Amino acid sequence: MCGIAGYWNRNIREKGNEYVLKSMAQAIAHRGPDDEGYYLNNEGVALAHKRLSIIDLSPNGHQPMFSSDQRFILIYNGEIFNYLLLADELKKQGVKFRSNSDSEVIIEYYRIYGERCLEYFNGMFAFIIWDVEKQNMFAARDRIGIKPLYYYATNDIFVFGSEIKALLKHPLVPKQPNSEAINNYLVLSHQLDDQTWFKDVKLLEPGFFLQIDREKIVKKKYWNPCIEVNYTRTYSDVKEELRSKIIDAIKLHQISDVPVGSHLSGGVDSSTIVAIASRMGKGDFHTFSSSFSGLGGEFDENKEIDVVKEVFKTIHHTVTSDPQKVMESLPEMLYAMDEPVVGPAMLPMYFVNKLINQHGIRVVNGGQGVDELFGGYLPSYTLAAQNILSLIKSRKKVPINEVLNIASYLQKGGTFKRLFNRTKSDVISLYKDKNTYPDAISRYLNTADQIGIGELKFEKSMYMSLKHYLPGLLQQEDRMSMLWSIESRVPFLDHRLVELALTIPSYYKVKNGVLKSIFREAVRGLVPDIVLDNRIKRGYPTPISIWSKNEMAPFFVKTLKKDNSGVNDFIDMDSVQLMLNSHISGNGDYTTSLWSALCTKVWFSNNFN
């Protein structure tokens, strides 16, 4: 896990500016405190690498790294979890490796297979390869979007980095707010495309690569999540395959030359990781969780955490997040994030990763992805009911018990509000431009309709979460871990598991009134029943809804005070004041809108004041 940055002056054949390159690298030094490397040539190419040593800790893993024929140069951020198997395949072909690193596997596979190398990699990655002979550049990002890659491109220059703050150190990259991206966040909490909050700075989308030469930049898709539900397989058959893939993915994600720990929230997802990883016999196994002080205590899952840590004999550590710490740290968090995304889940992530750093653990696994892929959110009940009705309409065979559950599911899931639980009038009143809301929602719905699966709303929601909402969560995961020089892995987003999930009928995922049913049953016998049978699904992952009305109310009032900052171009601050007064007095719950306004205001303060 590392940080990469650099640029290519495509129309100037002279050596790059070493000072600019090192400034870019220094902006993301937290991503790689163990080593650094630089490469500049007379073709205008400048590459920087900041290393966090996880696999092959020796100097042999140093980057920039040359291929065995000296033609290609690599800088890379991430992990290829099947690199040992891939290395063995190349050794059979006579390739002699100089290191035991996955970095060398990447560059040797590219040397042999070119862009097709991406088909072989199971991992999380973003990398750049310079071809010395043909004088072109190749940039790629993993299938799911676990590791980031940003870029700025004109006819003259291509600038890139693991974080936007690195790009902004280059004198040719403008620092201007991007209204489309900001408005997308205010409506949807996430992006629908490659836009960022900085104008003309792009995010390479998951499953894409770039081919860059002196004349053009070509973007191509090499992986696309495809929904092909298989209604012929039995529940038992799917459950057994799912169990096998879960175990294999978690085991694969333990590969490391430094100790690996795990997040432990007390839920099914993280408990599954602990149950499997802790049995692998690599010595003490550390687990980490976050609790909340004051009125936020009701969000803790200490009962389930206590059971899991006792059953699997983990060395457990807990950090308490309190309102004062949140208020003091929020500007740093949002600076680390580069831009606000999704909700306030970054708060516990920030504090728990700081705790992990303090205990000297460099790698942790987390449970991201299960809720999105297997129906873990309360609206999944509504989506499941709508799916059953659609399947009946199309004359598909549906389990009779699930037909009888339709009314119950509609009641449990509430009305179909996939985005946020707030009224349309509340949302529209937040924005300076009242057309922002319908425009953003139209883009969202049009994107969902293009999937081509008819009226299957469960699958549409899953697809949109995977393509647009989940990358926001993963951005939080990446920034809040790398800020503390921690590599955070997400084994449930192994692309083989994702591809299997896209084939499983919704009535296996929400079954007999249970969310994530088939996932729970797949790990039964591995995970304690008290965890698997806990049906409570908390609507909000953090206590901001409570804190903002109580301990943090003065902070919200002070921060959201109307001023002359650039936020006024996007948010109607008079409406925000009305929402805030009503929220604090208990006459309404405007948590989502107020949190969005707060983060936007702090972002403008960080970047333009």
Q: What does this protein look like?
A:
The chain has 609 residues and is of the alpha+beta class. It folds into 3 domains: 2-221, Glutamine Phosphoribosylpyrophosphate, subunit 1, domain 1 (4-Layer Sandwich); 235-374 and 470-532, 3-Layer(aba) Sandwich (Rossmann fold), CATH 3.40.50.620; 548-609, no CATH class. Helix content is 42%, strand content 15%. The protein contains 25 helices and 17 strands. The strands form 3 sheets. The protein has a 6-stranded antiparallel sheet with strand order 2-3-1-9-8-10. The chain has a 6-stranded antiparallel sheet with strand order 4-5-6-7-11-12, with helices on one face. Strand 8 and strand 9 form a beta hairpin. Helix 12 packs antiparallel against helix 17. It starts with a strand and ends with a helix.
Features:
609 residues, alpha+beta, Glutamine Phosphoribosylpyrophosphate, subunit 1, domain 1, Rossmann fold, 3 domains, six-stranded antiparallel β-sheet, 25 helices, 42% helix, globular
Topology:
Elements: E1 2-9, H1 18-27, E2 35-40, E3 45-51, E4 65-66, E5 72-80, H2 83-92, H3 102-113, E6 123-131, E7 136-141, E8 150-153, E9 157-161, H4 164-167, H5 179-188, E10 202-203, E11 208-212, E12 217-221, H6 235-252, E13 260-263, H7 268-277, E14 286-292, H8 302-311, E15 315-321, H9 323-337, H10 346-358, E16 363-365, H11 370-374, H12 379-393, H13 400-404, H14 406-413, H15 424-430, H16 436-449, H17 457-482, E17 487-489, H18 495-501, H19 506-509, H20 517-522, H21 529-532, H22 544-547, H23 553-559, H24 573-585, H25 591-608
Parallel strand pairs: 13-14, 13-16, 14-15, 16-17
Antiparallel strand pairs: 1-3, 1-9, 2-3, 4-5, 5-6, 6-7, 7-11, 8-9, 8-10, 11-12
Helix pairs in contact: 2-3, 5-16, 6-18, 9-25, 10-17, 12-14, 12-17, 24-25
